[in-house]
Amino acid sequence: MLRRLYDYVIALASRPGALWVLAAVSFTESSFFPIPPDAMLIPMALARPDRGWRIAAVCTISSVAGGALGYAIGYFLYETVGRWVIDLYGLQEGFAQFRESYAQWGLWIILIKGLTPIPYKLVTIASGVAEFDFTVFMLASIVTRGARFFLVVALIKRFGAPIRDFVERYLTLVTTGLVACVVGGFVLVRYAL
Asked: How crowded is residue 5: how many other Cβ atoms within 10 Å of its Cβ?
C-alpha cells in the first residue's frame, strides 16, 4: 500500500493540480491537520527537481498563511476551536507550559520549533493565545518554514538521484522515520515541555 501511495504522489507531482494539493496540505497542517507537508513535498521535489524551488515556495507560503489561521484560532477562538485542537492531540499539559514560556522566549520558540518535527500548529495557536506580536510571528514563520522546506529541496537538488534511489529502496524505513519524527514531536511536547 505504501509503495502505491508513493507512486501515486510521484505521478501526481507532474500533474498541473499537484501544487494546489500541496498548498492545501501545507496550509491546513499549520493550524489543524496532522500530516506534515513533507509527505508531498519530498516526492514532488524528487519527481520534478527542476521545479523544486517553486514547490518549496508554494509549501512555505501556504504554511505561513495556515500559520496565520492557527494564530487567529488561538487569538480569537481559543475557547472553542483552539481548545478543541489542543485536546484532540492530547497536548493540554504541554500547551499550558508552552503558553507560559511565551512571555520570555516567544521569538526563539517560534524560530526553533518551526524547524523541528514538533507540531507547528501548537506554535501557531499558542502564539495567538499568548497575543504574541503578529508581525514578529509572521516574519519568524517565514524564516523557519522557508528554511525547512527550501533545505529539503536543496538536499534533493544536490543529491538528486541517489536520494531518490535511497527513498525508493528504503521507502518503508524512510516513511517510518518520518512518522517517528512526527509522533516524537507530539510526545516531546506532551511530556517534556
From this structure: 13
